[in-house]
Amino acid sequence: MSRTTTTIETTTGTAGTTGTGTSGETAGTAGTMTTAQVIERFNEAFTAHDPTLLAGLVADECVMVSVQPAPEGTRYEGLDACLGFWQELAADTNTAFRPQEVFVFGDRAVIRWNVYFGGGEVNEVFGDAHAGSAWVAGVNLMHIRDGRIVEALGYSKSP
Asked: 34: exposed, middle or buried (C-beta count within 10 Å: 0-12, 13-18, 19+)?
């Protein structure tokens, strides 16, 4: 069984493990979620298969590049495109998303993850290259501004 570790590093050099993301990181404005909080809720949407948790996390100007097709992925621009992509993926109960590690550095985050496929059916997001796979490993590079995701770049290992 995999374990999830959230590691927070701030520009002051403070590092630690936390589930709240409060190790010295400041929010953009009062009531704005920190980068760690945004990433924690983002990951929970996928682990719990609850796409409603993604509401309010994506900026109007968000740009997201998916893991497939390799090597460039598919580019999605804007709130509707990015949110729609992630909500569909989060709702897919045939996949099991398991974050392995999360690193937060100010307004940036790195999510190292595994996705497991149930019933031998690979989600179309991961493409035909993974058709014979039970799982895939990957990483997302995230940029958060004012408590919302403005950029997400996805990469995965290809068989």
From this structure: buried
Rounded to an integer, what distance in angstroms lies between the CA atom of residue 159 and that of residue 130? Answer: 7
Query: What is the dihedral sign for C-alpha 104, 107, 142, 56?
Result: positive
Q: Hey, which residues does 135 pair with through a beta bridge?
A: 116
Helix (H) / strand (E) element for 77: namely: strand 75-77
139 within 8 A of 155, measured Cβ to Cβ: yes
25 by Cβ neighbours in 10 Å (0-12 / 13-18 / 19+) ranks as: buried
* Residue 106 CB-half CA count within 13 A: 3
Alpha-carbon dihedral 61, 125, 92, 155, rounded to 10 degrees: -70
pTM: 0.79
Beta carbons of 68 and 104 less than 8 angstroms apart? no
> Over the chain (159 residues), what is each successive 10-residue block's mean pLDDT?
48 35 42 93 98 97 92 94 96 92 98 84 56 83 98 88
